[in-house]
Amino acid sequence: MRHPSDGTLRRLLDEPAGIADADREHVAGCPVCRAGLAAAGEDAGLIETLLRQEPEVDVDAGWRRLSVNLDTPEGRSATVARPGRWRTGWRSPVIAAAAAVALLTGATAAAATDWLPIFRTERVAPVTVSPADLVKLPDLSAYGDVAFTERADVREVPDADAARAASGLGVPRLAGPPRGVSGAPTYHVGNRASAVFTFSAAKAARTAQALGRPLPPPPPGLDGSHFRFTAGPGVAVVWPSASGAPALTAGRVHAPTVDSSGIAFATARDYMLSLPGLPESVAAQLRTFTADGTTLPLIVKSGQETNATADVNGAPAIVLSLRDGTMSAVFWVSDGVVTAVAGTMSADEVLAVARGLRWNP
After folding, report:
1. pLDDT: is 47 or 295 the higher one?
2. Structure confidence at residue 138 as a pLDDT band (50, 70, 90)
3. Which stretches of 111-245 are assigned E, i.e. beta strand?
4. Could you give the CA distance from residue 35 to residue 305 in angstroms, rounded to a whole number?
5. How many CB atoms sit inside 10 A of residue 130's CB?
6. What is the Cβ-side half-sphere exposure of residue 297, based on CA atoms within 13 angstroms?
7. Beta bridge partners of 160
8. Minimal CB count within 10 Å: which of 61, 184, 258, 360?
9. 52 backbone dihedrals φ, ψ, rounded to 5°
10. Dist. CA 130–CA 148, nearest whole Å
11. 22-31, 32-41, 220-229, range with the lowest pLDDT
């Protein structure tokens, strides 16, 4: 039997009752389609990820955001289509990128008692990952410990004024209703969120052993070093379709930053790229990133998504789209703020929306 289309997988998230039994059964038994369903779930959560780092998330799961090993259609629907849930995780396009940058970009040495700013987001760039490599990406917790120090507390607020007051950001509003959007928007805000990752040579050694590969000797000072990730506050506006399902989301968040304590980051970058578990295709792309600590990677799933560069009112942007054209998103950075617009529309349409956004000051 042929694989269901990307559009069918996307519909399985939003309207599972509308999917034919044959397609359900195929997805349940097909690893390729389960990976595709996971990818569709990631696309549906692009903007939510900008805001959400839920305190109840098991940090030992690390970059996990969506398992591709669910065994039943019912289980998958319960996980990826729960109304009102803002999906999250360290494998999400934005949060995983911030974590990768923290470990892979360059900086000078920091005094052990001080936090040294080593990463400030000024631009975004794509990192292409195959579905097979995506599910192989290692948990951050495989190499150390993660502890949340500030919680996002994502919540709905009554209107744009309340969203602006809670986030400190201008709130996106549409110049005019695009195709597929119908009805009044809802407003969501999140506080600043931060977490500290502590590298552990012992954990890294156990991970390497489980993979059947030797652990390269850690450079002096890396064991026990801390890296602090911070993002937010943020705001998102969600416009519904005629059916009530989300049709368009525009989100803004104070851009991710990373601070370091205890080691020169050029050393950490080279070492982390050599660790077992990181697919070489991903490591090779990260090696091409400049070491100035300003470029935030965005994960692009090869064979399922396309990406292109664009301009949004003078700011360089990255446009991601599902290959069947059913969903697109555009990301850009300006004045220390990451903005993303995503919707069930073509790349040209979502880019036109992004360029036409207005802001409640």
Report:
1. 295
2. confident
3. 116-120, 123-129, 144-150, 155-157, 171-173, 186-190, 193-199, 226-231, 234-240
4. 13
5. 16
6. 27
7. none
8. 184
9. -105, 125
10. 30
11. 32-41
Amino acid letter, residue 189: V
Q: Are strands 246-254 and 337-343 parallel, antiparallel or unpaired?
A: antiparallel
Q: Which of the four pLDDT bands, split at 50, 70 and 90, describes residue 330?
A: very high
- Taking residues 103-132, report their average pLDDT: 61
The strands making up 144-150's β-sheet, listed across from edge to edge, are 116-120, 257-261, 226-231, 193-199, 144-150
Sequence length of the chain is 361
Per-residue pLDDT band for 27 (boundaries 50, 70, 90) equals low
Q: Is the pTM of this model over 0.90?
A: no
Separation in Å, CA 86 to CA 65, 78, 99, 185, 224: 11, 13, 20, 16, 32
Task: Report the C-alpha gap between 149 and 165 in whole angstroms.
Answer: 23
Contact 104, 286 (CB under 8 A): yes
Could you tell me the two tokens for 317?
A: 């942007």
Cβ distance 93 to 49 under 8 Å?
yes
Q: Is cis: bond before 4, omega within 30 of 0?
A: no
Judge whether residue 192 has pLDDT over 70: yes
pLDDT for 280 equals 85
> Which burial class, exposed, middle or buried, applies to 90 when counting CB atoms under 10 A from its CB (0-12, 13-18, 19+)?
buried
Give the number of other CB atoms < 10 A from CB of residue 79.
17
The single-letter code of the amino acid at 283 is A
If you ran DSSP here, which 8-state letter would residue 153 be given? -
* CA–CA distance, 253 with 83 (Å, rounded to integer): 23
CA distance 341 to 360: 16
Q: Looking at the DSSP assignment, which residues form a beta bridge with residue 125? A: 297
Q: Which two tokens stand for residue 187?
A: 């407003």
